[in-house]
Amino acid sequence: MVAEEPSIETMQTVRVLLADDHALLRDGIRPFLTDLAEQVDIVEAVDFDGALALATETTPDLVLLDLKMPGMAGVETVSAFRKACPNVPVVIITGQVVRDDVLRAMELGASGYLPKSMSGTSFVHALRLILSGQPYFSAHLLGPGGGETDASNHAPGGRFADLTNREVQVLSLLVRGESNKEIGLHLGLTEITVKSHMRSIFKKIGAANRTQAVAMAIQHGISG
């Protein structure tokens, strides 16, 4: 079954590890983080060693990670943070979205891959989804040619060939980062029906969870 996602509304305090070596960027992000909960504690790091130490010592609820910090080894570094705090969502913030890096980040267990070019409103929305247990990736940058694509125009083969048109629509909205409630509102379905579609999708494509389903969908040309 698709488990119920916890609501961020129940979180009174959120501790965020913000790891980026550019002070100007940290200064710009910090005000948006305060919108995540009634109280937001922010700890900051400027290199890999400092970030990993804080991830272990401070028990954050969310890790925001710049891949270009000193000491980082690219997207592969995600695995070190997943080991240090396995139950904490790790989100990559980057100035350049590289399709292969996004897919690799998903494989390594990252919960999000956010371009620094996104708006503050979209940034907060993405982090709220991630804190509620849902992955968020910039899927519209991963379609053919780097632009948005219409999932209904794709005819993915293999396991995806068994998906109904409605299931493809649901999966496309999942890739976009929408919650079950938002998918239901978008398609005129109840949350119960959306969850039923999710279970069917996961079974047909062999996905264990939402993050894996998103990664598999993008690899097969389905985007949000």
Automatic annotation (TrEMBL):
Protein name per Swiss-Prot or TrEMBL: DNA-binding NarL/FixJ family response regulator
GO annotation (BP), single: phosphorelay signal transduction system
Keyword Aminoacyl-tRNA synthetase: no
Organism phylogeny: Bacteria, Pseudomonadati, Pseudomonadota, Alphaproteobacteria, Rhodospirillales
Region forming the signal peptide: none
Keywords assigned: DNA-binding, Phosphoprotein
Positions of modified residues (4-aspartylphosphate): D66
Entry-linked InterPro entries: CheY-like_superfamily, EvgA-like, NreC/VraR/RcsB-like_REC, Sig_transdc_resp-reg_C-effctor, Sig_transdc_resp-reg_receiver, Tscrpt_reg_LuxR_C
Gene Ontology MF terms in the entry: DNA binding
PROSITE patterns: HTH_LUXR_1 (PS00622), HTH_LUXR_2 (PS50043), RESPONSE_REGULATORY (PS50110)
Ranges of residues in domain Response regulatory: 15-131
Residue ranges constituting the HTH luxR-type domain according to the UniProt record: 156-221
Species of the source: Roseospira visakhapatnamensis
